[in-house]
Amino acid sequence: MVVDQLRMEDLDHYAPLLGPGGLGGLAARGTPFEARYLTANTETGPGHATLATGAYANEHGIATNLAMTEQGPRYVIVDDRYPVWGRATPDGRSPAALRVPTVGDTLKVRSNGKSRVLAVAAKDRSAILTGGFSADLAAWWDPDQATFTSSTYYAAEMPAWLKTFNAAHTTAQLSGYRWDAVRPVSSYLPLTRPDDARAESARLGLPPTLPKTLDPAKVPPGKLGTAARYAPLLDGWVADLALAGADALELGRDDEVDLLWVSFSGYDMVGHAWGPYSVERADTVVRTSANIARLMGELEKRVGRDRLAVVVTSDHGVAPIPEDTAALRIPAGRVAYGDVSAAIDGALDASAGPRDWVKLVSPPNVWLDPAADALPCDVLERAARAALSVDGVATGVSACRLEHLSGMPWEAFKNAHHPVRGGHILVETRPYWIWRDPAEGTGTDHGSTWSYDQRVPVMVVGG
Questions:
Q1: Cis (ω within 30 of 0) for the bond into 211?
Q2: Peptide bond connecting 364 to the previous residue in cis, omega within 30 degrees of 0
Q3: What is the pLDDT of residues 364-383, one digit of tens each?
Q4: Short-list 356, 416, 351, 409, CA closest to 383
Q5: Rounded to whole angstroms, how far apart are CA atoms 258 and 273?
Q6: pTM for this model (two decimals)
Q7: Which of 218, 229, 400, 434 is at a distance of 20 to 30 A from 160, taking alpha carbons?
Q8: Per-residue DSSP letter, 437
């Protein structure tokens, strides 16, 4: 199980809320230990790929969620050859971007295909990059269709069991869904900021305070499925989907090792929108813990505790909301992509002539016009250093220079950079500074080498 955005710190900070089951029960049954991602691209795609393969982006190829290709900027799991079930658009999905096999692929090879592998999530990249090439199915929530789906990479059409599941989990249940705190808000406040604090705002019609209602009259047209990703109902449905899929594929029913990946993505969406110390986040950690407890309990009933091994971890952490940090007189803020692009463009214009040099900023990678491939490394390095003139930028280094740097601070950038797919320049913000989301402008983000993004728990029980 992957709790998207769960930090090691969260287990300690929210320990009073966890109780004897779920995350609290796992901590009691086995000692959680701290893992740290030694990489600069602490994002969902690279993180899930690392969990599934044991490699970093320099090997597994998932350098960022959005990457530059010959066709232009492209979401890393898009594959036009394999349409998504139920969609008329050509942007299909597959794991083709992975450069190395996953643990599920290894199980399939070892068992001659007898092991079964299922991956479910609210995010498509979470399911696909953990399921790998040979999964029996990777299924995810499609916000545009407001239903769970997959692509023709895995099967020509949706299996009957998933059709039955979707028929019982409908948009009618989303419409009007009310998110009330599962416990009194007063029990959260010793661990959180006020419920309506700076840099919190409405998201897709959901107000900045609890309770929140998925009101079709307030949610933008066609966005009910997207808004549902910010509400706890969806992660409960993901747990339900994992159980339905485990039954349909008969996971754990014979002597071959089967693998079930479950990624709870709602914790990440809530953290982005309202911050890691929000009332919403406290309520979500309680609900996530309950979902884990329920899922473990049901799986143990099906296969027996002695035949079930559970690993719970995370793909990355998250930064505090910068306005909260700045209010404590700690330097913090938001860095605009455009400011970094302008600084790099200006340096390259002066060195190599005027051109629209920057083609994509998807931190930590900055992709340049292909003409940059012919530029001397010292020219690219000067352009990378120009990014340091932007307030809030900590690191700017060219990929060609990175090859010759050594020492622990640079290992994270080397691990994040794929030699073919990576950008020409790598840029990172200072501690407590985040990249400004041009669509939102509030909330917070992740994707750095700083400890709040890198430190995650690993809990192992059974086996």
A1: yes
A2: yes
A3: 999 999 999 999 999 999 99
A4: 351
A5: 35
A6: 0.96
A7: 229
A8: -
